[in-house]
Amino acid sequence: MSKEKQSRADLQEKKILALIAVVQRILDENAYIKDLAVGTLETIKLMSGYEEAINKLKEKMAAESSKTEEANTSTKTFE
Fold first, then answer.
1. What percent of the chain has pLDDT over 90?
2. Dihedral sign, CA of 38, 39, 42, 43?
3. N or C: lower Cβ tally within 10 Å for the chain?
């Protein structure tokens, strides 16, 4: 019986170590993606026309936001 308990404990330990390795790999990939995103953003900021593009996006978001608010208020019922 003790050998069976020991082998079960060994198996669980191996599984835990495997899970730790997977989580560590995910954390490493997440850090890489963050660095890549920040680098891409900084590169885009250096491109010509960046400010104009940002202003166009702001205008577009404001227009979409007002459309959403109009839709939300037109579907409300008042009692």
1. 73
2. negative
3. C
The whole-angstrom separation of Cα 44 and Cα 49 is 10
- From the DSSP assignment, how many helices (H) and strands (E) are in the chain? 2, 0
Backbone φ/ψ region at 38: left (φ over 0), alpha (ψ -120 to 50), beta: alpha
pLDDT in tens, 27-48: 999 999 999 999 999 999 999 9
Which residues, other chains included, contact 61 with Cβ-Cβ below 8 Å and sequence gap of 6+?
A: none
pTM for this model (two decimals) = 0.59
Q: Scan for tokens 């979409």, then name that residue.
A: 64
Q: How many residues does the chain have?
A: 79
Q: Do 44 and 50 meet the contact criterion of CB atoms below 8 Å apart?
A: yes
